[in-house]
Amino acid sequence: MPHPLNISNQTISAQLSIDWDDGVQQILSHLFLRSCCRCADCKALRLHSKAELTVAEDIRLTEVRLVGQYGMQLIFNDGHDRGIYPWLYLQELLSADDAIASAERLAVIGRA
Ligand SMILES: [Zn+2]
């Protein structure tokens, strides 16, 4: 399984970029990362409502903490710090990336 060589949090563009050791660069928006948090709270929310719609558009990722060898913990400026994102999960997101990016753009256009 690929491992990240470099993780860089770009606060101005609100994106997290990950350079994987298989040569792939993954770019994830803070909004998207917050929306797909898999902690118990967010999972429960998602079961009962459309949690991704409740995330503020100006959400920002403020801190990235490595968790052992297998993933990272993300801390957001809405105080949410319970999300652990294993490398395996990020790899799964990588394959779904294109569809999500266009869905996100559509959502933004829809609100404009
Ligand atoms: Zn969460």
If you had to describe this structure to a student in words, what would you say it looks like?
The longest helix has 25 residues, at 87-111. The chain is an alpha+beta fold and 112 residues long. The chain is globular, with a radius of gyration of 14 Å. It has helices spanning 30-35, 40-48, 87-111, and strands spanning 4-10, 15-20, 25-29, 61-67, 71-76, 83-86. The chain has one domain (4-111): 2-Layer Sandwich (NE0471 N-terminal domain-like). The protein starts with a strand and ends with a helix. Zinc ion (ZN) is lined by residues 37, 39, 41-42, 80, 82-83.
CATH topology: NE0471 N-terminal domain-like
Number of domains: 1
- Corresponding CATH architecture: 2-Layer Sandwich
Which regions contain 5 or more consecutive residues with pLDDT less than 50?
none
Strand order of the largest sheet: 1-2-3
How many runs of DSSP E, i.e. beta strands? 6
**The top level CATH class name:** Alpha Beta
Tell me the strand percentage band.
25-35%
- Pairing-aware structural class of the strands and helices? alpha+beta
Estimate percent helicity.
25-40%
Mean pLDDT: 86
Q: Which molecules are bound in this entry?
A: zinc ion
Helix-strand pattern: EEEHHEEEH
Tell the overall outline: globular
Spatial separation of the terminal alpha carbons = 40 Å
Describe the sheet with the most strands. Answer: 3 strands, antiparallel
The number of distinct helices, counting runs of at least 4 residues, comes to 3
